[in-house]
Design goal:
Strand content: 5-15%
Number of helices: 26
Low-confidence stretches: 310-317, 467-474, 523-611
Helix content: 55-70%
Radius of gyration: 33 Å
Strand order of the largest sheet: 3-4-5
Number of domains: 3
Largest sheet: 3 strands, parallel
Length: about 650
């Protein structure tokens, strides 16, 4: 692509702004904070960020809403914020993808009024819009009208809609525009009513096309673009600062997650302490077994709670939804993946530290563990490391797996494996040789060894080999000897430093994996799969596509993409590709027996999108259907259409 006769370089692309159809933001941020975040990361240091933000608020009329959280805004207010996030980057050309989608007439008018003010401020504004009202349509200065296949039908001025009406009325055989008829509806209606008319060829033969070509040729002469060549507006330090500021605010304002973790921690620690509260110390081996089990199960259980909490409370509002915000902002050049991944890791640390201290303090005192500062410190340290590992593991699973349900299932499986091979339920010597590597790979093994050794390794107190009221043996043993024997000699008191080092390595591996997944796994490569039928004029059928196989072959292939949409084959395209099936005169299947084959050929076109279920229903006016349901619906619809047309022909 060229611009003013020059190849479009990355530095020039930064003069463009792109407003997506859907409003993807950090919902806990205020309007002012969202604009400051975008401007601070995308504008050079020499720019007056405050002045640009104030001007943007004026143009979009958002001064009164600047302190509101984005989650509290209406649809049209959110759309204006989306526009503002791009506008503060001070682009020369602003692209907007369906800015009125999902808005009522009044809200759409408010948004387009704001867009018009942007255009009048000296910027070029290009919008895609579908079937606007007469008032909205008249607000545009020029129109590029496309039909199936991206072929241009009209490129020229609108003059309030009069120009496009005059153009179509001048074409032989095209009806006149009725009084008070919306010009936008008129042009779409005449195109749909005349499928055999080649409007693209008519446009190419017109004087308007010749004038446009001369204008393009003159503008294509190489000229010096007076644009600064900036590769990046902000360095990593700046990105870390603003990302850290926003993420810290987000966590602080998401009280249901932050406070919920603390309450769960207090509840579980209290339950453990109440069930096993020892005021008279350890006297019997059965008491020691119960206490050792709690020392192992406590971190294990809270680790699982951490992962589940991350998946269910953090995964949906922060990891899952925020992931789409990350892709949008990274594509806009706000920041790189590495600073985002670093901030996303560091922001969890204070909360994990707090939870670790709360759990360790309550659990340690109530259960009656070793009352020394050294033992308590080691217990807190091991619990913190495992809790942090479990939290980061939950983030990784949400990032790399298709949905939350799969992530939760994977969490249960991984925790079961780690606990099974930790050395508590099965001693190291009893693990089959082929599975012995799992013993050394399980982080819980190192947590177990560290906690058991720091609690019992130097405890030489005598303890009876019996339970209360039952004598199993008249010989006593020491606490340390019994613990080492209980674990089959698989513990060593000298491994604290290696244990901590391995846990740190596990944490690093999980975070690096999360970073790589965020960098290389695209937004459309994961997600729930839905299909629907879209307007046939929005997509053309490509019979040369490798997906163009029979229905039976297609159903054997795995479904890929964020969502799957089925597009009904356009009738006029069908007559060209399948003359054996379609009657080119009546533009319908020759025989009802061919309908199933026709549908099989129609439902092989894939389209990837990033719609959530709610956005899907808003866009298409119906909930997502399964593949089989949609194919059956298409077949019934085509059969009904065929029978209706046959009946009409019979009556004629």
């Amino acid at each position: 692509m060229d611009m003013n006769g020059n190849a479009l370089m990355r530095s020039v692309q930064k003069q463009f702004g792109y407003v997506e159809q859907f409003d993807l933001h950090c919902l806990t941020a205020t309007v002012q904070e969202a604009l400051e975040f975008s401007a601070s990361l995308r504008l050079p240091a020499s720019e007056d960020v405050t002045r640009i933000i104030q001007a943007t608020l004026d143009i979009l009329e958002l001064h009164g809403d600047r302190g509101k959280r984005i989650s509290d805004l209406s649809n049209e207010q959110s759309k204006r914020v989306t526009i503002g996030v791009e506008l503060v980057a001070n682009p020369s050309i602003l692209f907007l993808d369906e800015p009125t989608s999902g808005l009522d007439v009044h809200a759409a008018k408010v948004v387009l009024d704001a867009i018009l003010r942007i255009a009048r401020s000296g910027r070029t504004v290009i919008c895609t819009i579908h079937q606007p009202s007469f008032v909205l349509f008249a607000m545009f200065d020029a129109l590029v009208l496309l039909r199936t296949g991206g072929n241009m039908v009209y490129v020229g001025p609108l003059n309030g809609g009069n120009a496009i009406v005059e153009y179509f009325e001048a074409i032989p055989g095209i009806r006149k525009c009725r009084d008070r008829e919306n010009p936008a509806s008129y042009m779409l209606d005449v195109m749909a009513a005349n499928p055999r008319t080649d409007f693209s060829s008519i446009y190419k033969a017109s004087a308007l096309y010749a004038d446009n070509e001369r204008t393009i040729a003159a503008a294509s002469a190489p000229t010096q673009l007076r644009m600064p060549a900036r590769r990046r507006q902000s360095n990593y330090a700046t990105q870390l600062y603003y990302l850290g500021l926003r993420t810290t605010r987000k966590y602080w304002r998401t009280r249901e997650y932050s406070l919920g973790r603390v309450l769960i921690t207090v509840f579980v620690a209290g339950i453990f302490g109440v069930l096993y509260r020892r005021g008279d110390g350890l006297q019997y081996t059965t008491q020691l077994q119960s206490q050792a089990l709690l020392v192992f199960v406590g971190p294990l259980f809270m680790g699982i709670i951490s992962v589940i909490t991350v998946n269910e409370s953090l995964g949906l509002p922060v990891v899952d939804a925020e992931r789409m915000v990350f892709f949008r902002e990274r594509a806009s050049g706000m920041y790189a993946t590495l600073p985002y991944a670093i901030v996303f890791a560091l922001v969890e640390v204070p909360y994990v530290v707090m939870n670790s201290l709360v759990f360790s303090g309550l659990f340690y005192i109530l259960v009656g563990l070793k009352a020394t500062a050294d033992a308590f410190t080691w217990f807190c340290g091991y619990y913190f490391l495992y809790n942090l590992f479990a939290t980061y593991l939950g983030q990784l699973l949400v990032v790399i797996l298709p949905d939350l349900r799969t992530a939760v299932m994977a969490t249960g499986g991984l925790n079961s494996l780690m606990s099974l091979f930790a050395g508590f339920f099965i001693h190291k010597d009893n693990i089959p040789a082929a599975w012995s590597f799992m013993y050394w790979m399980s982080p819980l093994h190192y947590v177990l060894e560290g906690m058991m050794c720091t609690q019992y390794a130097d405890n030489h107190a005598s303890i009876a080999l019996s339970s209360k009221g039952t004598i199993l043996s008249r010989e006593n043993t020491t606490v340390s000897a019994y613990v080492f024997e209980m674990f089959g000699g698989g513990l060593s008191a000298d491994n604290n430093v290696p244990n901590v080092g391995f846990l740190g390595l596990c944490i690093a591996v999980v975070k690096i994996s999360t970073f790589l997944a965020m960098k290389f796994v695209s937004a459309s490569a994961r997600g729930r799969h839905f299909i629907t039928m879209a307007d046939s004029d929005n997509e053309s059928y490509d019979s040369s596509s490798p997906r163009s196989s029979s229905y039976d072959d297609w159903t054997k292939e795995p479904l890929v993409g964020e969502k799957l949409c089925v597009y009904l084959l356009h009738w006029d395209k069908a007559t060209q590709d399948h003359p054996d099936i379609f009657d080119t005169t009546l533009i319908k299947p020759k025989d009802p027996t061919t309908i199933y084959r026709c549908v099989s050929e129609c439902v092989i076109h894939y389209h990837s999108t990033t719609l959530t279920r709610a956005q899907f229903e808003l866009e298409y006016g119906m909930p997502p259907r399964s593949r089989d349901e949609e194919i059956m619906r298409l077949r019934h619809a085509m059969l009904a259409q065929y029978l209706t047309e046959v009946e009409m022909d019979r009556k004629k």
